[in-house]
Design brief:
Helix 2 crosses helix 8 (193-205) and helix 4 packs parallel to helix 6 (114-123). The protein has an 8-stranded mixed beta sheet, with helices on both faces. By secondary structure, it is of the alpha/beta class. It is built from 12 helices and 8 strands. It has helices at 4-7, 25-36, 49-54, 74-90, 107-111, 114-123, 173-178, 193-205, 219-223, 229-238, 265-268, 281-308; strands at 41-46, 66-69, 99-105, 128-133, 184-189, 210-215, 245-248, 251-254. It has a single domain (4-308), classed as 3-Layer(aba) Sandwich (Rossmann fold), CATH 3.40.50.970.
Amino acid sequence: MARLKDLCKNPELFSSGHRACAGCGEALAVRQILLAAPQPVVGIMPTGCTEIFSSIYPHAAWQIPMIHTAFETTASTASGVVAAYNFHRKMGNIKDDIKFIGFAGDGGTYDIGFQALSGALERRHKFLYVCTDNEGYMNTGIQRSSATPYGAHTTTSPAGEVIPGKTMPRKDLMEIIIAHNPAYAGQTTVAFWNDLVTKVGKALAAEGPSFLNVLVPCPLGWQHPGNLTIEMSRLAADTCFWPIYEWENGKYKINYEPKEKKPVEEFMKPQGRFSHLFKGDAGKTIIAEAQRQIDAQWALLHKRQEAFGA
């Protein structure tokens, strides 16, 4: 496990002074990941929240080489960069052991960029793909994505008389990635910094493509105070809304077991995107269904660990 005093000795590769919203979980995740990444490292980033707040011309928060690419092409751009690097290293033009990290949100990963990611995993390009998952298209107006949870209000799944927010559960991206047999895959969130930086180390050391799904609360889109970002991350794990686990060498491992599993409504209550669910009997039904889905997924993850655990 990583030690905080060791991380503090590493250079800050994501500088302060960027334009992220107060309490932005995405900025916290990028900073933690780069603190843990061995040098040298090259980043690949599509259009999205991170690109907007970190690199508005003529300023940039990145203290590493960063390639900005199209919304859907994080993984394909990374594939090309890795292929070029491998060629030049084979020719003796590059001696350094360079690490490559793609950063993309859930819109650019679960949805628009999934085809490129699936192809890169199948071709076995060696790089780390990080999904900074804030559960919506926050940069373009808080639209729903396939990562948006059941019952959440967004501008394209508005809670009202016709629909009660998003009517379908979010996509289980981790299991889809695991089906591609990556070298390493992990799921975590910014409140668990030690777990996150440990998984970054494992992912970058893996001999093949690796993937991290990082929950990054968004005060603007989730409609919670910015000072509750870390608390929202903890509640996501304590309610098992967001299981903290990893998959390596065909083995599942749950990295965090809540001492007392909390009801999902404790995660929902501080967030304005779920406020409509606490105003009538119809909302109680949706909360109960959300709880059923979470309980079923948590039980299934335990079964996977029992069957395919270390």
